[in-house]
Design a protein that fits this description.
The structure is a single chain. The chain is of the alpha/beta class. It folds into two domains: 159 residues, Rossmann fold (3-Layer(aba) Sandwich), CATH 3.40.50; 240 residues, Aldolase class I (TIM Barrel). The chain is built from 19 helices and 15 strands. The strands form three sheets. The chain has a seven-stranded mixed β-sheet, with helices on both faces. It has a six-stranded parallel β-sheet with strand order 8-11-12-13-14-15. Strand 14, helix 14 and strand 15 form a beta-alpha-beta unit. It is globular and about 60 Å long. The structure holds cobalamin and iron/sulfur cluster (SF4). The site of iron/sulfur cluster has 11 residues, from helix 7.
Length: 477
């Protein structure tokens, strides 16, 4: 076992005129997973293909897979699952005999389903130590039953799920990520600083328990932090490699204000050149207005703010542990600090009334510089998945796939209102004003969005035009 191919699956299925993973139009940054795994697998020759960012052919995938001793695949979301599956089948057909190893949020939630669809191994939850043990075991022909966190098929073709692996007690013990595996020319983030874009992390997981959230489920509702010294070491490395535009993958950024004060002061002291985007809770912002000013000075330019809804009844229902007033306060603080607010909002939650849905759409413009609104989708493994299943309110099957066209039956009608909102929002002169005369981030954000939307529309082919919007329409029918 010498050579591995790391794969973010190619887009075999593409939707038109807008892609199914619309948020990819706003920023294009690689998953950190492969830089982390590469850091743990220093002894191997490794190649990376990012099918979400690069323009590769299936023939090239075949060629590279045949040259490798194992293929490591990221399975990230229900929206990407169809493409992951198409890639797995292609590998089974054209590079037979190569072990196919899956990992990531979706693979973890659906380990046996993936074994049934052709994967040989699934690494659940945290990957660094499991993959190291697994590759060593594959090199020796097994055994696999002692590898914690692994799901696999045994020689008799039974599916096996080994006990879970304990999460790393200290994130500083993880190897340094190796960002050199990414082709920096493939990525970009809407931040007004020159330099390459990529993903980094200062912590993993989130201790909250929002009932719709698959992210905190993945990490057992815990949050572990890298030390400020370790974070600064990583940021120095990034700057040395030319990366200045950073998307922090943390689910709950700034959760520990003292630690982040040290990080931001370190960035300023060392004069690191950075602009960054973070996921942050409104109550975190509302608790720490001074920290937000410091964060801005250190380079925080975009807050992906978890507003969800302004309706307190619903916030309580999904256990957000924050309320509408706190969100408004957070918006004031971020605006005063000069930080762009991309507000995560959700409509179509179970039992939501039409009035409550309307309230979210109405608040979108007031509370954000750009609203990232999702229609609720129950994700496997979450409390809401069990609830929707019990109420027979699932768009289809076990949500292995999701096509962003069908939503829970009780709220399916919202799609029309959702599309109308976006049409009006995106064509409103206010947005063009931000594009032309806004703050540097507003200009960059809207330029990126409109440019990528235009590219998507212009990628039309007869096949796409024949079936607009419905690339995966057959999934549930
Ligand atoms: C960067 C990112 C993206 C980027 C790049 C994605 C990519 N895969 O290349 C972009 C913008 C393209 C993207 C798009 C989307 N994303 Co995204 N994304 C992220 C984000 C913010 C960071 C990922 C990351 O770097 N994490 C840090 C690394 C270290 O953690 P990790 O990825 O979990 O990897 C560890 C393990 O999972 C494992 N592992 C992962 N992959 C593999 C592979 C192998 C072989 C092995 C052995 C192990 C392994 O090892 C790693 C180290 O322990 C996460 C949030 C998060 N905190 O993770 C969301 C997240 C993964 N995305 C999510 C979603 C929903 C999406 C979209 C559907 C959004 C949308 N509606 O458009 C699309 C789908 C894209 C697609 N076609 O699949 C969800 C997934 C939820 C779920 N599965 O239920 C997350 C969790 C965000 C959230 N809180 O909801 N995303
Ligand atoms: S705060 Fe965010 S990451 Fe944490 S559980 Fe809630 S939605 Fe998930």
């Amino acid at each position: 076992m010498k050579k591995i191919l790391m794969l973010q699956p190619l887009r075999v299925y593409e939707r038109w005129p807008m892609p199914d993973d619309f948020t990819g139009l706003l920023g294009n940054s690689p998953t950190l997973a492969f830089a982390q795994l590469r850091g743990a697998l220093k002894g191997y020759d490794a190649e990376f293909m990012d099918g979400l960012a690069g323009d590769y052919t299936l023939a090239e995938l075949t060629r590279r897979a045949r040259e490798a001793d194992a293929v490591l695949v990221n399975a990230h979301s229900s929206i990407g699952a169809l493409n992951v599956e198409a890639n797995v089948r292609h590998l089974l057909d054209t590079a037979p005999g190569k072990p196919i190893i899956l990992g990531g949020h979706h693979a973890t939630a659906y380990d046996f389903e993936w074994l049934g669809r052709g994967a040989h191994f699934v690494v659940r939850n945290e990957g660094e130590r499991t993959i190291t043990e697994l590759l060593a075991a594959i090199g020796k022909g097994g055994p696999y039953d002692g590898i914690a966190g692994l799901s696999w098929k045994d020689g008799e073709r039974n599916y096996r799920r080994n006990p879970a692996r304990q999460l790393a007690a200290d994130l500083d013990d993880l190897p340094m990520p190796d960002w050199t595996i990414y082709d920096p020319g493939l990525y970009g983030l809407p931040l007004p600083i020159k330099g390459y874009a990529t993903t980094a992390e200062t912590s993993r997981g989130c201790q909250h328990r929002c009932r719709f959230c698959a992210a905190s489920e993945m990490w057992g509702h815990t949050q572990r932090f890298k030390s400020p010294a370790r974070v600064l070491e990583e940021l120095r490395t990034l700057n040395r490699l030319g990366f200045t535009r950073i998307w922090f993958s943390d689910d709950n950024f700034c959760a520990d204000p003292a630690r982040y004060t040290e990080i931001f002061e370190g960035i300023l002291r060392e004069n690191l050149k950075l602009n960054f985007i973070v996921f942050i809770r409104p109550d975190t912002v509302a608790r720490s207005p001074e920290l937000m000013k410091l964060a801005y000075r250190a380079g925080m330019r975009v807050a992906l703010l978890g507003i969800e809804t302004t309706v307190n009844r619903i916030l309580t229902d999904f256990a957000k542990a924050s309320d509408g007033e706190t969100s408004r306060r957070a918006v004031e603080i971020l605006r005063a600090a000069g930080i762009f607010i991309a507000g995560f909002m959700m409509v179509g939650y179970m039992d939501e009334t039409q009035e409550e849905t309307d309230a979210v759409f109405r608040a979108a413009d007031e509370l954000t510089d750009y609203p990232i609104i999702s229609i609720f989708e129950p994700r496997h493994g979450t409390a809401d998945f069990s609830r929707a299943t019990a109420q027979l309110d699932l768009p289809g099957g076990d949500m292995f796939y999701h096509n962003t066209v069908k939503f829970i039956p009780s709220k399916a009608h919202i799609l029309k209102q959702y599309r109308r909102f976006h049409r009006n929002y995106l064509l409103h002169p206010k947005q063009f004003k931000k594009l032309l005369f806004g703050t540097p981030v507003q200009r960059e954000w809207y330029r990126t969005l409109y440019l990528n939307m235009a590219r998507s529309v212009l990628s039309v082919t007869p096949a796409k035009a024949a079936h607009p919007w419905e690339m995966v329409r057959a999934l549930y029918d």
